[in-house]
Amino acid sequence: VTGVRHDIEPQAWPARSGGPGRNAVRVALALVTVLLLVWAGLRWSMIALDVHDRVVDVYPAEEGPTFRVLVLERGDLLTVDDELVRRMEGDGPLPGEQVVTRRWSRTLSVGGQTVSLRLASRSWWLLGLVAGLALVALRRSWGGHRDPERPVPD
Amino acid sequence: MVTPPSTVTPVPTHTADRIVLLVPASRPGPPPVDRPLLTTPPPRDPPVPSARGNDQVPDRRGPEATIRGLGWWPPPGPLRQDLLILLGVAVLLSLVLPDRSDWASHLVAGGGIVLAVAGRLGPRLGAWAATLGVVLVLVVSAAVDLTLTGPFDPADVAFTVLGGLLVTGEVGAATTGAAGPAAPTGTAVRAGSSSGLVARWGVALAALALVHRYGIWR
Question: Is B83 within 8 Å of B191 (Cβ atoms)?
């Protein structure tokens, strides 16, 4: 059995149906993926959080050394960037300090001091990695036809 | 003993309405055979020495036939590419983010679910099966992270969906669905993996990801 069959009926290859619509859905899914990671980065940097509470404890997160967990008086657990916690600890230990920030604000008040909020360098790096992989994924599935030996029925 | 050739000429004789040739009984012919006639077989090549030892039959099928004989490993085609890329990216993630190996698990789980869905629904839905599988992965992973495995982390959902996007889930439904006597020949057959194999790989990858995330490898 050799060679490429060009006489196969087009309906035998359903993978080609709905190409543009399917590509649009996959682009939307890739955008959702990137936006989810942006959202995660904004939460880790506390930009997307609304906090008016006192810090009870701080400990390393199980997610690794680049994250820490803030335990708040009302029982909330916040996983935030270690980089941010080090900036917040500038004038002393965090437990016992009042933390105030509004959602989408670029500053945070801790113990009367103002700390600027920004995405951590690791978040930017992660964002680039995921966006690149999403582009690779879109490139692989674009049009649903990748095998050069495979006959194109339409 | 060699019988000399006969010199007697057959004499035609008329009997009723036909001519009968009378042949002397001493006419030479093949010697009488008192055992079954056997066809002489063609000469055979001497056996080729095998690297596996003198008692083993040499394998002349080639490396590709050997790979096909494994059964569980897909033939060259979309499924093999999907697996290599998904597992390669997972290994890469584990290397560059060793403290977040759970993201590699989410990635493999997402790819596995999409392959399972594509394997089950591919013959009916074509390439839409994989795309709908990714949508399903988005909904299910968000729901599970919000309810069962929280606290909710958008990055977990992002890596799960990314795994689903990385596999195209091209089952080649026609090549496998028509794998009977009427199956198309040529590249069409060689390019695809069976939908059952795709689904089994998907389930296996999802189970592997679960074990890695919550099991002994964590």
Answer: no
Cα(B196)–Cα(B176) distance, integer angstroms: 9
Q: Do A15 and B125 touch (CB under 8 A)?
A: no
Say whether the peptide bond before residue B98 is cis (omega within 30 degrees of 0): no
Q: pLDDT of A79-129, one tens digit each?
A: 999 999 998 888 788 888 899 999 999 999 998 889 999 999 889 999 999
Amino acid at B120: R
Task: Please provide the DSSP assignment of A110-125 as one string.
Answer: ETTEEEE----HHHHH
Q: Do A150 and B186 touch (CB under 8 A)?
A: no
pLDDT in tens, A12-49: 434 444 577 888 999 999 999 999 999 999 999 999 99
- What distance in Å separates the CA atoms of residue A47 and residue B104, rounded to the nearest whole number? 26
**This prediction's pTM:** 0.69
A138: exposed, middle or buried (Cβ count in 10 Å: 0-12, 13-18, 19+) = middle
What pLDDT was estimated at residue B149? 80
In chain A, which residues have their Cβ closer than 8 Å to the Cβ of B125?
14
* Partner-chain contact B155 A138, CB within 8 Å: no
Give the CA-trace dihedral at B21, B27, B30, B33, to 10 degrees: 100
Tokens 């966006």 found at: A131
